[in-house]
Specification:
The protein has 199 residues and is an alpha/beta fold. The protein has a single domain, classed as Rossmann fold (3-Layer(aba) Sandwich). The chain is 57% helix and 13% strand. It has a five-stranded parallel sheet, with helices on both faces. The model has no long low-confidence stretch (mean pLDDT 93).
């Protein structure tokens, strides 16, 4: 089974590429969805968050204030690393279980869609790494529009991640997502032809 890592910085358009691949019947493991599932199924994670980061990130009903917490950890990179150290072992375990399920089903190719694929060294387990790229100005505009953030907040989130240039050093395949959707679709079509050839 060929394992392909799909990654990109916030606002790069990785989710768009992932959706095109999914619509073309490629098997996708979505690390963001797994992260949400992990929080729901493992309440001890939020217990640890409450202890380590304070009760201020929970409302009066005890519900986790995800957006406020997200803004906080993106503003303070050391806090984000601290949070990832708590949650990543659970996420990796779930990803490994899903990969094993697909292996048992004799799938030929599986794509792991993970924004921090490289930062968390998951790229080392992949046969290919695809990086969706966009210029910094494009990322800022998209993040502001999509997440209704100020420019300062958008820049803070982008700067909290590994730079696009650094990520390029680990990638086998680049998708330039600065243009329009048609241009992206053409590149993804070429990518799908390649993936079908190698498997």
């Amino acid at each position: 089974m060929i394992k392909v890592g799909l990654t990109g910085g916030i606002g790069s358009g990785k989710s768009t590429v992932s959706a095109i691949l999914k619509n073309n019947k490629f098997k996708i493991i979505d690390a963001d969805n797994i992260a949400k599932e992990v929080l729901e199924k493992n309440p001890q994670i939020l217990d640890t968050v409450r202890v380590e980061f304070g009760a201020g990130f929970f409302d009066w009903r005890g519900e986790f204030r995800r957006k406020e917490f997200g803004n906080h950890i993106f503003r303070f990179p050391k806090q984000r690393v601290k949070y990832e150290q708590i949650i990543m072992p659970y996420i990796k375990k779930y990803i490994e279980e899903e990969l094993e399920d697909y292996r048992k089903k004799k799938e030929k190719i599986v794509i792991l869609d993970a924004p921090t694929l490289i930062e968390n060294k998951m790229h080392e387990e992949m046969d290919y790494v695809i990086l969706v790229c966009a210029d910094n100005s494009v990322q800022i505009r998209r993040v502001m529009e999509r997440d209704k953030l100020s420019k300062v907040e958008a820049v803070s989130r982008i700067n909290s991640q590994m730079s696009m240039e650094e990520k390029k050093e680990y990638a086998n395949i680049l998708i330039d997502n600065n243009g329009d959707l048609e241009n992206t679709k053409k590149q993804v079509d070429d990518l799908m032809k390649f993936l079908k050839l190698v498997c």
